[in-house]
Structure formats: C-alpha cells, structure tokens
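[Automated response] Your request has been received and processed.

Submitted sequence:
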Amino acid sequence: MTIALASDHAGYDLKAGLAEFLRGRGVEFVDFGCGSGEKVDYVDYGAKGARAVQSGQCDRAILICGTGIGMAIVANKFKGLRATPCWIEYTAEVSRSHNDSNCLTLGGRALTLELAQRIVRIWLETPFEGGRHAVRVDKIRALETANFK
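Generated structure:
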C-alpha cells in the first residue's frame, strides 16, 4: 500500500512526525508537500493528494491542515475519494470498517503527534467490513456517478 501524504503549513509539523512514523512501520508513502516554512493554501495540497489516489498512483491519502476539515472538503470534491476527518481512534476505526475511507484528514492544530499516530495506525490496519456497509458505499458511488459529471 502506498500513501499520499500532504499538508499545508498548519499541518507541516504533524506531517513530518507522521512521515517518520510511517517510515518506522515500513509504510510506503509519497510526500506531496508542503515543505518546512512554506505558507500555502491547503486546497492546492489536498488536491495533489486526492489526485494521487484518484489516478491510482497511491492507494490512500493522509492529508493534514489546521483542523482536517478543509482537507476533507477538498478531497471529497474528487470522484472516488471518501475523505474522513478523524480526531479520535473510534472515528478512524469506523471510517474504515463502515465507510471504506481511502483518505484520512487530520488537524495539525487539533491533535498531538501521539494521538495522530494511534489514529493513523488504526486507520491503516482496520479492514472494510463489507456486507451492509458495502451497500451503503455503493450508494455513495451511485451519487458520485450522478453528481460528478
């Protein structure tokens, strides 16, 4: 599995810490920026990460801004992305098991590195349950087909 990793300036420090965490776990990732000290718009970097998943270059994305909300909004504008902002372990687990989330968004100003690491670990390790949840994800895909022309 390859992860697209991207942040704006508010998420840079958390992104850097998570990059080390992913390396330590042997998780392959592509860092789409931003760099240290840059002042950037989250929209641009969220789009880079989302496009990497949409194109198949990466399997999933972790996008980080100040709260995770802006990145989720951006990523969910891309057909095929199911971006979920998570602030606690439970939402990370359910975003995968029930929603088959392929894009985790996090808040650099809302989370400690330790909590973000736990959230990422759970999000990476939790499988999609399928079953009744697959029916719902299929309905989401149908909405995308109807609304993303």
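Summary generated for your ticket: Residues 6 and 45 are 6 Å apart (CA to CA). The beta strands are 2-7, 28-31, 60-65, 83-85, 103-107.
If you did not submit this request, please reply to this message.
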